[in-house]
Amino acid sequence: MICSFELGEGALTASVKDCIDIAGLPTRQGSAVFAEAGPALANAAVVDALLASGRWRIVGKAAMHELAFGVTGINPWGGTPVNPQWPDRIVGGSSSGSAAGVAAGVVDMSVGSDTGGSVRLPAACCGVIGFKPGYGVVSRQGVNPAYSSIDCVGPIARDLAVIEAAMTAMVEGFAPVAAPKDSDIRLVRLSPEVSEEVGQAFDLALSGLATPVLDAQLPSFDAAFDASLVVMGAENWAALGAYADHPGMGEDVRARLKAGGRHDADAVAAAKAVGAQLAREIDAVLEQADALILPTLPIVPPSLVEAQDARAVVPLTRLVRPFNLSGHPAITLPIRTAQGLPVGVQLVGRRGGDAALLALATTIAAQLGLQEKEA
């Protein structure tokens, strides 16, 4: 789950996903491809920021799905973290060790990365909170791959106050704002297709809110899922295609990597156009509301046996991936089905409104009974 060491003297503990550089340690990215990687020469910007704040102590690097290119967290080479509360089910990927370590209470917070749901998905699978900031809000300097037009560095924690503390440290000038009153929040619900048990859990959660919820549609939402796969695939091929025939690479990752190499410049441009259209649709809805609300997962986390078919679990990201393409901040709060399985409520805020979204999430979490609302 986590390889241990200590950096810093802060009271709050953190782990860092192993695609993020820490000086003096190899960045293996959960892959045999980089098993012999030399030590990183410098800390990633986000590591330096946490240490400079004086509040954080980094105690380890977290395991991950190989090359951050998968949604299950299953990793035969690097090790598959155990979902602390549901050990027969996937921990989720690609920030698998990050979510598992937080859920197990090993650390207060873990720094993950989210290219297509890779913070929010494992957080939901493990019953904790995962925040994807807006694109570019947290520096990606020292994060692998070096370039991505959709990847975001974000925190996973059990408590929203810890998420805010992490963002305050990681982002210069980030300032938490007061949680809004129940009556001041305007939410707009999206109703994508989900399984019956997820739908029932989500409806029950919304029925307990003290905040009115209106309905809306995003015409480009479904198309953005496929478009995001194109962008991620093409960019991963550009970054990692030279290793596609490495004998140590997992076959599931190899297949996805090579598939990404088939997307030409025209396909990528068309995919990004879908993202731009979705962003306009979301912006228009959020002119009249404070946040979108929708489920995080379309189904409950599959069992480890069910997840052996990697292609069958890609749709797990169907409700999270579009917001990577649009660039909006998004957060998942944990809820459970009637059978006690983990799912999530996802809130999506305005671009540039990261602090406001976290404040709103604090009020919604209190309404859901996840934590006490501050006076």
Could you provide a short overview of the structure?
The chain has 375 residues and is α/β, with parallel strands linked by helices. It has 11 helices and 11 strands. It has an 11-stranded mixed sheet with strand order 1-3-2-4-6-5-10-11-9-7-8, with helices on both faces.
CATH topology: Amidase signature (AS) enzymes
Percent strand: 15-25%
Shape: globular
Tally of contiguous helical segments: 11
The low-pLDDT segments are: none
Structural class: alpha/beta
What does the model show?
This protein has 375 residues and is an alpha/beta fold. It has a single domain, classed as Amidase signature (AS) enzymes, CATH 3.90.1300.10. The protein is 33% helix and 16% strand. The chain contains eleven helices and eleven strands. It has helices at residues 45-53, 96-103, 120-126, 160-170, 196-207, 221-240, 251-260, 265-286, 310-313, 322-326, 354-367, and strands spanning 2-7, 12-17, 56-62, 109-114, 129-132, 152-157, 187-189, 213-215, 291-295, 330-336, 342-348. Helix 5 (196-207) links the parallel strand 7 and strand 8 (213-215). Helix 4 packs antiparallel against helix 11 (354-367). Belongs to the amidase family. InterPro entries: Amidase, Amidase_CS, Amidase_dom, AS_sf. Pfam families: Amidase.
